[in-house]
Design a protein that fits this description.
Length: 347
């Protein structure tokens, strides 16, 4: 693991010329909004894929975010979200789609920061139910999601995505301590026909593809501003167009970890069923359950590709991979065949 004191920021996040351009843009947007900066900014988080800067103003903090090339589409996605699903997300104060820049209002505390929220299954159920409605609302606008630059991680696209990842020795860290061995890679390559069939079986259920956050957990959701209020999802840099139920891979993995639940635990299945309720008017319940099981299994490939995108510009900057992040691709490719939260518990 990279030490906490080690700088893992993309080099341009530290470039004075880049920062001057950011400061000028932020000042321009604040002036347009009738706001003014009241204290020094704080570069709150900087990674190979994005950086976040807190900007104190006379009306509280606002937050600037810039994405690297692999996650650049988030700004354009927000433009779709505020038009097509406005009740589920923060409304940006400003967007620069060409540069991948966002200026966001303060969203309050995340679920992770609220005492007891991250282990409260009722809160997770609310999150999954509200998010399922967002996904359904966006089904008619898939063309707009693709136009925003989202990756195609639909069942028909996943096998080729998997093949491309398995063909890249550097991404796999082949035959290194942190990567895949040649034997593991050969085994995963041999599994390709089975994986492709799983994807075809998933597509055969006919469930409309839509927005898929692909990293929906307690640190990417703002707690309600008031009791009973909506939960608002943020941090859409990983998002893809895909089979909607792939979301459950990350969400239920977090629930299982936080609540110390085994795969197939009743609590996880109840959360799955609450999430799937949004589709029950149009699809058979048994089909939805089986589609969710398949989606969670195949989506690990989308997660692996997300790590490829996350470190893409970092690697091209000449600094190479870092151990804090370079394990993502091989680890998720391995996990694609491991038990999932929706598999039955061992007898």
């Amino acid at each position: 693991m990279t030490g906490e004191d080690e700088d893992v920021a993309l080099p341009r996040w530290r470039d004075p010329a880049w920062r001057a351009a950011v400061d000028g843009w932020v000042e321009e947007q604040l002036s347009r909004l009738g706001l003014r900066q009241t204290a020094d900014t704080k570069q709150d988080r900087s990674y190979p894929w994005s950086t976040v800067i807190e900007v104190p103003t006379n009306d509280g903090s606002v937050w600037f975010k810039a994405n690297a090339r692999g996650m650049h589409q988030e700004a354009a996605l927000y433009d779709v979200l505020v038009r097509r699903a406005p009740d589920h997300v923060l409304h940006p104060l400003a967007l620069d789609v060409d540069r991948g820049w966002l200026l966001l209002p303060d969203g309050g505390q995340t679920l992770r920061a609220v005492e007891g929220a991250r282990t409260d299954l009722g809160v997770w159920e609310q999150l999954l139910v509200e998010y399922s409605h967002l996904q359904r609302e966006l089904e008619p606008y898939v063309d707009e999601l693709f136009a925003a630059g989202l990756v195609d991680a639909t069942p028909s696209a996943l096998p080729a995505m998997r093949d491309a990842l398995l063909a890249d020795d550097r991404l796999l860290l082949l035959d290194t301590e942190k990567g895949l061995s040649s034997a593991e890679r050969d085994e995963l390559v041999a599994y390709a026909p089975t994986y492709a069939k799983q994807c075809r079986d998933l597509a055969a259920y006919g469930i409309a593809v839509t927005l898929q956050h692909d990293d929906l957990h307690d640190h990417n959701v703002f707690a309600p501003a008031e009791p009973g209020g909506p939960l608002r999802v943020f941090d859409w840099g990983d998002a893809v167009v895909g089979q909607p139920f792939g979301t459950l891979l990350i969400s239920l993995k977090f629930v299982a970890m936080l609540a110390n639940l085994d795969p197939g635990a009743d609590e996880l299945l109840r959360l799955r069923d609450a999430y799937l309720e949004a589709w029950t008017d149009d699809y058979d319940t048994n089909d939805l359950v089986e589609a969710a099981r398949l989606a969670v299994r195949v989506d690990a490939v989308s997660r692996a590709d997300c790590f490829r995108r996350a470190i893409l510009e970092w690697d091209e900057s000449g600094r190479g991979y870092r151990t804090m992040f370079d394990e993502g691709v091989p680890s998720w490719l391995r996990e694609q065949r491991d038990p999932t939260s929706l598999d039955p518990s061992p007898a």
